[in-house]
């Protein structure tokens, strides 16, 4: 299981962060992209964003551990989520980027 962090970009407001976990990262990112692009149900549909970028924070061998980490990360302040994202850039470069009106990057 992968615990991931998405930085969601908006035209007229600061970015927001979304935390999740999945056993299939590519499939889940494509689902989020479809929610955003085609206005399907879900968190990504409710927030009118221009695009989002995703990184994997950590991997867990068990679902329960991934759920626990997701819950812990959801409760940290926005500034800390921003620091996690920035440190990822410094060490590894860009995450996966998904923009409105484009096909998902795998």
Describe this structure in words.
The chain is α+β, with helices and mostly antiparallel strands. It contains 4 helices and 4 strands; from the N terminus they run E-E-H-H-E-H-H-E. The chain has helices at 25-38, 43-46, 63-74, 78-92; strands spanning 2-9, 16-22, 51-59, 96-99. Strand 1 and strand 2 (16-22) form a beta hairpin. The longest helix is centred in the last third of the chain and has 15 residues, at 78-92.
Task: Please give a quick description of this structure.
The chain has 106 residues and is of the alpha+beta class.
Spatial order of strands in the largest sheet: 2-1-3-4
The total of helices stands at 4
Count the strands? 4
Percent helix: 40-55%
Choose one word for the global shape.
globular
Low-confidence stretches: 101-106
Entry keywords:
globular, alpha+beta, 106 residues, four-stranded antiparallel sheet, 4 helices
């Amino acid at each position: 299981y992968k615990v991931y962090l998405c930085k969601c970009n908006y035209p007229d407001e600061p970015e927001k962060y979304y935390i999740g976990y999945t056993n299939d990262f590519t499939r889940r990112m494509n689902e989020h992209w479809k929610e955003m692009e085609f206005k399907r149900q879900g968190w990504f549909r409710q927030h009118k964003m221009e695009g989002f970028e995703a990184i994997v924070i950590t991997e867990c061998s068990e679902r329960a551990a991934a759920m626990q980490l997701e819950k812990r990360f959801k409760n940290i302040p926005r500034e800390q989520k921003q620091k996690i994202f920035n440190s990822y850039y410094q060490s590894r470069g860009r995450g996966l980027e998904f923009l409105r009106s484009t096909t998902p990057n795998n």
